[in-house]
Amino acid sequence: MFSSWKNLWFRDATARPASINDTAVRIRAGILLAIPIFLSYTLYDAVFGSHWIVDGNTAVDTYDTDFDEHIIYSVHAIRKTYDYTVQTWVLLYGLFEMFSGMFVRTSYLSPTIWISSFLARKKPVLWKPLLPKRFAWSFGATFITVCLIFFNPDTFAHWVNTLSGAQLLSETEQYIPYWIPLTLIWVCLAFMWMETVLGFCAGCQIHALLEKIGIVKEECVACNDIFSPEAQRLKSKGD
């Protein structure tokens, strides 16, 4: 038990390149799946929901009709205002989780890694390299950053304008089309669902493709992994 807590989901926290328990990774993805689910409902309400708050008790018949013979009512309506404070904190936590999982030392700061490692302690272990997962989580971090900017356009615009010394972005308007975060949320939701349920890491597959065409160059994990089937075969052949 002490060894498992010491290494968390790593086979050996001191080994390079690092290998992580994919069973725990899938459990963690299932835990973090709550974030895109929550945000998808938020974005759906903000984009497709009513932008007005209407009190039905204040609807008054004007005793008049329009050209289609529809009765015209006079109502008291208030323009709905959105407070994304909760969503912002949820996104910041999600961004923290993405970055904390990318490196061995920061992994010990992640509550979900501790929880998933504990839940996976009695399940079959499947070791996979950390590098492709790190690449996949960088996608998640990018998606979260875009959503943070969408929910806080005035704050981001203020930072940009202050740092640049010029009025590059409007601080009173939403300059990011709603379909961008809406699409990213659903893509993120699909990726995390596939990771949790199917064990399919889309980001890892993209990383493998980039390796194959030579854009990304990584050292051979299997060559350095003394526990890999290939290494064991060569060892037994040498014996």
Total E-strand runs:
6
- Average the pLDDT over all residues and give the rounded result: 82
User: How is the largest sheet built, in terms of strand order?
Assistant: 1-6
Order of helices and strands, N to C? Answer: HEHHEEEEHHHEHHHHHH
User: Roughly how many Å is the radius of gyration?
Assistant: 25 Å
Helical content class? 55-70%
Describe the structure.
The protein is mainly alpha-helical and about 240 residues long. It has one domain. Helix content is about 60%, strand content about 10%. It contains 12 helices and 6 strands. The strands form 3 sheets. A two-stranded antiparallel ribbon has the order 1-6. A two-stranded antiparallel sheet has the order 2-5. Helix 4 runs antiparallel to helix 7 and helix 7 runs antiparallel to helix 9. The longest helix has 22 residues. The two termini are about 35 Å apart. About 5% of the residues have low confidence.
Q: Helix and strand layout, with pairings?
A:
Blueprint: H1 2-7, E1 19-21, H2 22-32, H3 34-48, E2 52-54, E3 60-65, E4 71-74, E5 77-79, H4 85-100, H5 104-107, H6 111-119, E6 127-129, H7 130-151, H8 153-164, H9 179-198, H10 202-212, H11 221-224, H12 229-238
Helix pairs in contact: 2-6, 2-9, 3-9, 4-7, 7-9, 7-10
